[in-house]
Design goal:
This protein is mainly β. Helix content is 14%, strand content 40%. The longest helix has 14 residues. Pfam families: RcsF (PF16358).
Length: 98
């Protein structure tokens, strides 16, 4: 793993979407989320890729090895929102049992 001894780098966190689950034993450690927000009118639109990366970063804080049940949703902004477009992802962070 990159990131040092006993640390998880967000790029090392695997993501299993929907009902797809790993075949090895695991333990649930936390619910995690990630968001992507388009803050400028002419800025880059919010994207699922950016939201999934934020999801991985949240999972890495818990030293998770993977995320299961990951789902992403696009939201239409509210009138008082700071985002012109928004994608939010949620999942369950897990660690492998060895």
């Amino acid at each position: 793993m990159s990131g040092g001894f006993n640390q998880i780098d967000s790029g090392d966190v695997e993501v299993y979407r929907g009902d797809n689950k790993p075949s090895r034993a695991y333990e649930l450690i936390s619910i995690v989320n990630g968001e992507s927000c388009q803050r400028k009118f002419r800025g880059a639109e919010a994207s699922a890729n950016d939201a999934v990366q934020a999801l991985r970063e949240d999972a890495a804080r818990f030293k998770a090895h993977a995320i299961i049940g990951a789902q992403c949703f696009s939201f239409k902004p509210e009138a008082d929102s700071i985002c012109y477009s928004e994608v939010s992802c949620v999942g369950r962070a897990i660690q492998w049992r060895d």
